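Subgroup meeting minutes
Present: P.N., E.W., G.H.
Scribe: E.W.

1. P.N. recapped why we're keeping a running log of single-chain structure predictions: easier to compare across weeks, and new members can see raw inputs and outputs side by side.
2. G.H. added today's entry (122 aa).
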Amino acid sequence: MGFYYLTGNWNAAEAMASRRVVDTARDYGLSVIPLFILMGNLVSHAGLSDALFRASNGFLGHRKGGQAMATIVACGGFSAICGSSLATCATMGRVAMPQMRKYGYKDSLAAASIAAGGTLEY
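Output recorded in log:
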């Protein structure tokens, strides 16, 4: 509407808006996020996340904040594989948040460890 107001040409404004919609839909960074969220759901429903967090609790559980440390390491590994911080935070949030709640972590610490680990790329 703003472009139409500035130019007075409705056809140009409509073409610009439609091109923007198509460019957004074709953007690689935005198209893979739903697939990573789907992968996180599959991992969660298959029980792999339970096994991962039981193993990490065995290695790091004796330390204070061991699950938070394991979550950061897992986020770093997943981020290195997929290359997207946003997809890592979304996927690991779906996988790690319920497990950290199960082990008695506060939501603030769980969210902070997922957010910190999601930024670890490359």
